[in-house]
């Protein structure tokens, strides 16, 4: 099924007004490993907000495309990838109380993050949470994300998700709001949330850190993943840094929706901040903005 964009646009506009009148929208953008998703999830937990990981949706489409041997550089494959983005059921579920990771003697206790919130990602009902973080997907996602047709489809779904009118299980837009629990707002992170997806967000934060700091974070994350999967794998820091800089270049320089700070976004350099400090700062900025705008959180 291909979405009727004109129709879904009208729906989005209509319910943006009705449903989001009193809900807070927080947009967080920034380069890879700046700490967007982990801190956005923790801030969402503290604020009772819904969390939407827009990057996970690009990753899920990349996985679907690679499984069908489709390449974003081949003209004949491009429309097939956009079609896959439209027809795939991508379901995000953030759990604030995840089950503990399997313990092995080789995991340093400092690296166990089981008490942190996690976002489970389902592609057509299959749990692909870990698969979409593999180096193969990471190295191919920029090519898919720079495709205009894919972006049109996913931006539409992301806006509808933030407005509570997209049913991820059915892959359908709904005429009535779907969020069953009552979050006080939405936080979405990505590259174009403040500039394209939610241009009227109540607060926009552009978070970054130096490439070396970000590569160190990714390096530690990859080491931890190989511990928990019980595989001994040599991870080369210079390769992690090189891949990250390559992806930065592609995210910043692409023609469509490049990674860019929105004019009205606040800049947050997390190079010298701990995760807790970063979360506290985000929560503080949200509470301050909500007070200024008379939004009751
Ligand atoms: N301020 C911080 N200090 C140290 N590590 C951090 C910080 N913010 C995030 N991290 C860690 O860095 C890694 C990448 O963070 P993540 O939130 O996935 O980044 P992004 O979503 O921007 O790609 C994660 O392992 C996370 O726990
Ligand atoms: N709103 C978004 C979110 C992500 N993307 C692209 C850019 C990134 O290279 C990929 C993956 O995003 P993701 O946030 O998962 O990547 P990192 O965790 O920051 O490494 O998707 C995008 O183009 N627009």
UniProtKB/TrEMBL annotation:
Transmembrane segments: none annotated. Pfam families: Cytidylate_kin (PF02224). GO terms for molecular function: ATP binding; dCMP kinase activity. Its EC number is 2.7.4.25. GO terms for biological process: nucleobase-containing compound metabolic process. It catalyses: dCMP + ATP = dCDP + ADP; CMP + ATP = CDP + ADP. Residues 27-163, 183-286 form the Cytidylate kinase domain. InterPro entries: Cytidylate_kin, Cytidylate_kinase_dom, P-loop_NTPase. Keywords: ATP-binding, Kinase, Nucleotide-binding, Transferase. It is an enzyme of class 2 (transferase). Belongs to the cytidylate kinase family. Type 1 subfamily. This is (d)CMP kinase. It comes from Funneliformis geosporum.
